């Protein structure tokens, strides 16, 4: 399962009933609300508080790259605060589109487990904060597409074989009918670099969290089966094995490499690791590298002052060090 | 010097005065002449005798690939015999275009040394065989371009930097005026794969062996200087270093690789070895690989029955084994 499902995410959207939506609040009120949510959260478990207006652009983008916050969250930092659990499994964005965006992210496929963590935290928060809720519409959110459970459940899938056979596009259009959507993690659909895709539920109104999760889990399992079958098929082709092996050779030796090329080579290597072509590498180590080599993560690790070419050289240095 | 000059070759064309040129002889007479030359040669030093009509096409082509015989020599095997010294430094083709084509091949730049070996053997042979010689035209040969000394001296040069800067073409046209010619070892001029070039004298009439060799040596030295300067220039470019390093990575990991790609990657690696980018590899080991991975040499080493695709896989296996 881990061969295909990289990670699981649950996100809950919540709003406080005594405040207007963030778009209608001024900075002062946003800060007041942020403090209120922080105080409540910290009585439940320890969190690091990060005021988005206090961090650099590079730090902010690297948080997006790590999927700890949304790209939308850094479009405007005013009054926005991030709470991050020590192990980075739980993050709470305050004053994004909604007052609270609570997210739980875990490796591999573990929708129920991640939902349980999110649900428990949500329950405890609701004891301290008054959430806007309607018996008819469920949790109230700024955007009507989030009404109801306010939940988005998603899995990050590595689909190199389905991408290669161009099956992802076909699958994508069928999923819409099932209330799900699949998109490339970087860029759109089949243009996704690194063959990474995010599959998530689109319907939150008129469906329970459990049903939405079960639906997502079923489709995920089907996609995993399809992907594994497609892998068996393509791996009988020596040219595919050749490409996978060379990809590791290039990553181990390159002196300069851009993000897209590194991601695509790591995607090939991940397929090789999953299919026992490389003994000394683990899926976890590849997933970690895929995260670490992102542009802002490289700047954050080495120096924010690097030019794009220097960054590509540092990325190559880092990959060589980690893979050799 | 060895960084650029891979090997040196001296070839002497000789004919016996009592026989017509090979083109005018029938098989019986060719055999008689071959026996006569073999007997004479074997009293001087030990040689392996290879009757070209007794070996397979693969064996014959692999001898061409090793530069032990000319491509012309295998176009027709009738009455053709090869004498090969134990260390393969000396080869004598009997009944090629001329009765005798005596060749000495040595690593690096050593024109005088190679000529000395060829000259001594030639002198000893001339004591046993009556060579066709005219005071006016020197040694008589079938093709008038070989009249005079009957000598071709050549050096095999690795010119990756001059090739990259497209300077080889310009140099080529100037060399003609100096009585020399440069050509790609495989294919023509700048299309040479592996950036390997052969520089040789074109004039054998009205010039002594010593003058021809000195002329070739001077031009070789100049070309080496130009190549080394060009290398310093291109190696300051990280993208060139990146390409060199990746080339080794690919050679160490590929599962299938054709001859042209392998040669071009080995050429990059050879440049890297010469410029101390790789500690564990020697120029000799790369030169040996460049020879061993040629199509017929691979068939000869593994099995003559391999399909082209299987051959490319065996080539990759061989490279991985030798480089890891």
Keywords:
homodimer; 8-stranded antiparallel beta sheet; alpha+beta; 324 residues
Taking all Cα atoms into account, the compactness measure Rg of chain A is 21 Å
The separation of the N and C termini of chain A measures: 27 Å
Q: How would you sum up the major sheet of chain A?
A: 8 strands, antiparallel
Number of strands of chain A: 10
Tell me the β content of chain A: 15-25%
Alpha plus pi helix count of chain A: 11
Oligomer category: homodimer
**Chain pair with largest interface:** A-B, 19 and 19 residues
Q: Strands across the major sheet of chain A, in which order?
A: 2-3-4-5-1-8-10-9
Give me the secondary-structure category of chain A. alpha+beta
Give the H and E element order of chain A.
EHEHEEEHEEEHHEEHHHHHH
Based on CA inertia axes, which overall geometry of chain A fits?
Answer: globular
Mean pLDDT of chain A: 94
Helical fraction of chain A equals 40-55%
Question: Stretches of chain A where pLDDT falls below 50 for ≥5 residues?
Answer: none
Describe the structure.
2 copies of one chain form a homodimer. The first copy, chain A, is α+β, with helices and mostly antiparallel strands and 324 residues long. Chain A has helices at 27-44, 57-65, 111-128, 160-164, 167-177, 209-234, 238-251, 259-274, 283-292, 295-301, 308-323, and strands at residues 5-14, 47-51, 81-85, 90-94, 100-107, 133-134, 138-139, 151-158, 180-184, 196-201. Helices cover 46% and strands 17% of the residues of chain A. In chain A, the strands form 2 sheets. Chain A has an 8-stranded antiparallel β-sheet with strand order 2-3-4-5-1-8-10-9. In chain A, strands 6-7 form a two-stranded antiparallel sheet. The longest helix of chain A has 26 residues, at 209-234. The first copy, chain A, is globular, with a radius of gyration of 21 Å. The mean pLDDT of chain A is 94. At the A-B interface, helix 7 and helix 11 of A face helix 7 and helix 11 of B.
């Amino acid at each position: 399962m881990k061969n295909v499902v990289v990670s699981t995410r649950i996100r809950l959207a919540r709003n406080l009933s005594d405040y207007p939506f963030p778009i209608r609040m001024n900075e002062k009120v946003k800060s007041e609300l942020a403090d209120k949510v922080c105080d409540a959260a910290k009585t439940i478990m320890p969190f690091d508080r990060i005021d988005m207006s206090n961090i650099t652009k590079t730090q902010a983008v690297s948080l997006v790259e790590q999927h700890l916050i949304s790209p939308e969250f850094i479009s405007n930092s005013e009054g926005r605060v991030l709470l991050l659990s020590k192990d980075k499994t739980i993050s709470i964005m305050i004053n994004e589109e909604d007052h609270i965006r609570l997210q739980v992210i875990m490796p591999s496929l573990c929708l129920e487990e991640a939902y349980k963590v999110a649900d428990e935290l949500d329950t405890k928060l609701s004891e301290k904060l008054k959430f806007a809720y309607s018996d008819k519409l469920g949790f109230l959110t700024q955007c009507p597409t989030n009404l109801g459970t306010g939940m988005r459940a998603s899995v990050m899938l590595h689909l190199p074989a389905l991408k290669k056979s161009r099956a992802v596009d076909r699958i994508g259009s069928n999923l819409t009918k099932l209330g799900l959507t699949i998109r490339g993690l970087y860029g759109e659909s089949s243009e996704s670099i690194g063959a990474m895709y995010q599959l998530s539920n689109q319907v939150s109104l008129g469906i329970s969290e459990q049903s939405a999760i079960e639906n997502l889990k079923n489709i995920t399992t089907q996609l995993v089966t399809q992907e594994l079958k497609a892998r068996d098929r393509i791996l009988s082709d020596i040219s595919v094995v050749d490409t996978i092996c060379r990809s590791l050779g290039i990553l181990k030796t390159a002196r300069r490499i851009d993000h897209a090329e590194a991601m695509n080579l790591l995607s090939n290597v991940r397929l090789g690791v999953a299919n026992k072509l490389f003994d000394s590498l683990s899926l976890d180590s590849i997933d970690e590298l895929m995260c670490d080599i992102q542009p802002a993560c490289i700047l954050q690790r080495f120096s924010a002052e690097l030019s794009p070419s220097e960054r590509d050289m540092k990325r190559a240095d880092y990959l060589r060090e980690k893979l050799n």
